[in-house]
Design brief:
mainly alpha; two-stranded antiparallel ribbon; 20 helices; 2 strands; 1% strand; DUF112_TM; membrane
């Protein structure tokens, strides 16, 4: 009952005219950015980070959550209509969703995606409301050794498990850790990697890094290496975006299974919603193979419903993990964690005690955002698709100007603008050689936590580093990490064996 009372207080705070306006703004921005291929919620949050410090924390985070959820809604729109998913999390939805569109069922495909995302996000929000306080209470058992183990788990999972190339993932992680240690050491007072420049004594701003890597780097990459074809591939939905009873009976079990698959991944630092969406799609494909008339490959509605529900349920649970544990599972969540710190807030049990108004208003805003996004996406999907008509040069020129104005407004330093350009070039090079960006962001965000926890644990044990592997929570986290790594290695070995056999089977036999 106490939780319901707190949630009711949260709705009272979220439904004020000002906060409701920011929910709508966040949903609009998130959907608009998600529709544009190559952009995403992480870029939108990074761009908004410098200019939201004038807002109250509650309003800012309500808007960020709207952007986060809205990005997923918009991603699937382009995947269905153009076979061009906005982000990797929408790839699984394109397989059957685009085939539905080609079969003249684009309106029904968009409705399936919107309802699936709504169901996944709404159920995840309910789970978060009741689970987040329990996770926060559990995190009170965490000491320096446990937080260090949690950071190591996040580092290893996001850099070696999710990425196709573990070496590139680890390299990206170490770049982020290297950026994080620049500046004056808080314990010894000694400057580290500053090149004797007073501009670097305070370190490199996380806001500058996120905007440069995610936004400016993407702009440079598109300008130099990509050529986008405008128009010609857009499929116009015909008919009403409603599902028949037969469609609902077909999609409902897939929505439920997708939601169930996505929920646990919201508290596992496995890179976001990419893995659960593919798992949900794979499960539906296996189940479809047992039917008398398999539909996969022809526009199966289950192949679209399950990934959409899985992606949004993962995102909803990720917000709970961020609030209760301070654990980011994706680049967007890592940027939001950075935003909490910019406001002087630390997610975890103390956040629920010190800022309950903010926490419960934010949790209540999840439900409001789901309803608003359903209203925005169910009947107006084609309106969002018209954003593709914006010429690319104008779009990316505007993003570049917004990057520079945001950084200069937040710091007032020309040096930060030069740093923005330099790190933006690093982001461009990482994209050009296919280095993942999420490990860099998570390494920079969690790097200070790992360093501080390591020092505190060692000093509390008089320099005995064995304290890091003595507690039950630490051992459990390291054990889970070992299992995850073994499972990932086995999957890759089996995939390589399958590819080798397929190549051998295709080769002609010499007589």
């Amino acid at each position: 009952m106490e939780t319901l009372q707190l949630l009711a207080d949260g709705f009272a705070g979220a439904l004020t005219l000002e906060n409701l306006m920011w929910v709508v703004v966040g949903c609009l921005l998130g959907t608009a950015v998600g529709v544009m291929p190559g952009l995403g919620s992480s870029m939108a949050v990074a761009l908004l980070l410098p200019v939201t410090f004038a807002l109250e924390p509650t309003a800012a985070f309500i808007m960020f959550s709207g952007v986060y959820f809205g990005g997923l809604f918009g991603d699937s729109t382009m995947g269905i209509l153009m076979n061009t998913p906005g982000q990797a999390s929408a790839i699984a939805s394109t397989f059957e969703g685009h085939k539905m569109a080609l079969n003249g069922r684009a309106a029904q495909a968009l409705a399936t995606a919107a309802i699936g995302a709504f169901i996944g996000g709404f159920i995840a929000s309910i789970v978060v409301v009741f689970m987040a306080p329990l996770l926060a209470d559990f995190s009170t058992r965490f000491g320096p050794a446990e937080f260090f183990a949690l950071a190591v788990f996040a580092f290893a999972a996001t850099s070696s498990v999710v990425t196709d190339n573990a070496v590139k993932g680890l390299a990206s992680l170490f770049i982020g850790l290297g950026i994080a240690v620049v500046g004056v050491d808080g314990v010894s007072g000694a400057p580290r990697f500053t090149l004797d420049s007073p501009f670097l004594f305070d370190g490199i701003s996380l806001v500058t890094v996120t905007v440069a890597i995610l936004a400016l780097g993407e702009v440079i990459y598109v300008a130099c290496l990509e050529r986008h074809v405008q128009g010609g591939n857009l499929i116009k939905p015909t008919g009403r975006p409603w599902l028949s009873r037969k469609d609902l009976r077909e999609a409902a079990p897939a929505w439920a299974r997708g939601t169930a698959i996505g929920l646990p991944f919201g508290v596992v630092p496995a890179g976001g919603s990419e893995i659960p969406t593919f798992l949900a799609y794979g499960l539906e494909k296996k189940l479809d193979g047992r039917r008398k008339k398999p539909m996969f490959g022809k526009g199966a509605i289950r192949g679209l419903a399950a990934p959409e529900a899985a992606g949004n349920s993962t995102t909803g649970m990720a917000m709970g993990a961020l609030l209760a544990l301070g654990l980011p599972i994706s680049a967007t969540a890592a940027i939001m964690l950075a935003a909490f710190r910019q406001y002087g807030l630390q997610p975890g049990p103390l956040l629920f005690e010190r800022s309950p108004d903010l926490v419960w208003a934010l949790l209540a805003s999840f439900f409001i955002a789901m309803v608003i996004l359903l209203i925005l996406n169910l009947p107006f999907a084609m309106l969002w698709a018209k954003l593709l008509l914006i010429p690319r040069p104008y779009l990316y020129a505007g993003i570049t100007m917004f990057c520079a104005l945001g950084i200069y407004a937040s710091s007032g330093s020309v040096f930060d603008l030069l740093m923005l350009l330099g790190i933006g070039l690093v982001g461009f090079l990482m994209r050009a050689v296919d280095f993942p960006l999420a490990p860099l962001i998570i390494g920079m965000v969690l790097g200070p936590l790992a360093e501080t926890s390591l020092r505190d644990a060692a000093m509390s044990a008089n320099g005995d580093f064995s304290v890091l592997v003595q507690g039950p929570i630490s051992l459990t986290l390291y054990g889970l990490l070992a299992l995850v790594l073994v499972f990932a290695v086995l999957n890759r070995v089996l995939a390589r064996v399958r590819r080798t056999r397929e190549v051998e089977a295709e080769e002609p036999v010499n007589v």
